[in-house]
Design goal:
- The chain has about 190 residues and is an alpha+beta fold.
- The protein has a single domain (about 30-185), classed as 3-Layer(aba) Sandwich (Glutaredoxin).
- It has helices at about 1-20, 65-75, 100-110, 130-135, 175-185; strands at about 30-35, 40, 50-55, 80-85, 150-155, 160-165.
Length: about 190
């Protein structure tokens, strides 16, 4: 009996390491650190359409900050919120501190959408939010590993993951715009 309990604990811990946290049933169950180091519950964004993006300052896709900001300004009044999660997981393309990242994004790209503290988005150290977004159990339609910087997840007002876009999919592309507009209700 004792042995079964130990194995159950080991299996549960392994599932937590490789997949989404067992207690998370929605993106609103997560807390993250903003770029200033404050804890933010994603519950704060319930009722909005979210575009969750892993970002980096020294990447060939870094100019997408401009498109992300343009989307945020254009559709923010209708409920779109872009959430930027810096990550240094791809060849050291986000080496700076949170303060340096914030300054870079503000000065070079005029970013006003919410930025969060640097996190891991892949592998064993992936942030629980990204484990949730990429795990087949919690996101069967759009799961899969993060392939590079600027992967994008579109989340509906109800917290359902509606679409996923590759790094190559520009934020202002027709496909992304159409999906955002549809999620916003036309």
């Amino acid at each position: 009996m004792k042995r079964c309990g130990i194995w159950a604990a080991i299996l549960a811990a392994a599932a937590g390491v490789g997949g989404a946290p067992a207690e998370a049933s929605s993106i609103y169950d997560f807390e993250v650190q903003d770029i200033e180091g404050r804890t933010v519950s994603l519950e704060r964004y319930r009722g909005n359409v979210l575009l969750i993006v892993n970002v980096a300052s020294r990447c060939g896709f870094t100019p997408q900050y401009k498109g992300l900001e343009a989307l945020y300004k254009e559709y923010g009044g209708r409920g779109l919120v872009v959430l930027g999660f810096p990550s240094n997981d791809f060849f050291g393309q986000e080496p700076g501190s949170n303060e340096q990242i914030k300054q870079f994004c503000t000065l070079n790209w005029g970013v006003s959408f919410p930025l969060f503290a640097k996190i891991h988005v892949k592998g064993r150290k992936a942030h629980p939010l990204y484990r949730f977004l990429t795990d087949r159990r919690t996101n069967p339609r759009f799961a899969g590993r993060i392939t590079w910087n600027f992967n994008k997840f579109l989340v509906g007002r109800d917290g359902a993951i509606l679409a996923r876009f590759r790094s190559q999919d520009e934020p202002e592309s027709e496909a992304v715009r159409r999906a955002v507009e549809e999620a916003l209700g036309g």
